[in-house]
Amino acid sequence: MTDQERTEDLAQLLARLKDEYNVSESEIARRIGTGASTINAWANRTRGGKRGPNPEKLRALAREFPKFTEDEIFAAAGREAPGPPSLEGEERILRLWRQLTAEQQRAKEVEMRALGEMNRTGQ
After folding, report:
1. CATH architecture of the region 3-76
2. How far apart are CA 11 and CA 19, in angstroms?
3. Which residues contact 121 (CB under 8 A, 6 or more apart)?
4. Which residue from 41, 43, 70 is spatially nearest to 55, judged by alpha carbons?
5. Residue 58 above 90 pLDDT?
6. Distances from the Cα of 121 to the Cαs of 53, 63, 86, 93, 95, in angstroms?
7. Which of 19, 23, 44, 89 could disulfide-link 27, Cβ–Cβ 3.0 to 4.6 Å?
C-alpha cells in the first residue's frame, strides 16, 4: 500500500473504486445491500464524522470490489478491521465461557455488545 492510499479517506477511496470499476454510487449501493444515499454520504464525508460506516457494509465493499482490500477500506473509513473469525478462536472462547458463572456470562455478554457497538459506530 502506498503512502497516498494509507492517508486517503473513504470519499477518496470511493472515487478510486468508481473509476477502477466504472460504477456509480447506485451500483455500489445495490451490490453491497445499502441505499444510494448511504454511499453518497460516505462519498461526501471526511474523517472525524460522528458515526462511521457499518463494518458489514465495509466488508461487503471488499467482497464486491476485490481490487480493494478489507484493511485498505477500513483504514480509509478511519476504522480498524475486525479480526477474521476462526474455529479455533471460537472454540477457545466457548471453553472459557463454560467456566464462567451465569452472572459472569451476563456481564461478558454486556461487555461484548458494547464493544461490538463501538465497532459499528466508530466511537
Report:
1. Orthogonal Bundle (1.10)
2. 13
3. 51, 52
4. 70
5. yes
6. 7, 21, 24, 24, 30
7. 23
- In which residue are the cell numbers 480498524 written? 80
The pLDDT of residue 115 is 86
Q: Judge whether residue 6 has pLDDT over 60.
A: no
Q: What is the DSSP string of 24-67?
A: -HHHHHHHHTS-HHHHHHHHT--TT-SSPPPHHHHHHHHHHSTT
61 contact partners, CB below 8 Å, separation of at least 6: 17, 28, 32, 68, 73
The model's pLDDT over 60-90, given as tens digits with 9 standing for 90+, comes to: 999 999 999 999 999 998 888 777 778 898 8
Q: What is the dihedral angle through the alpha carbons of 70, 20, 63, 31, rounded to the nearest 10 degrees?
A: 130
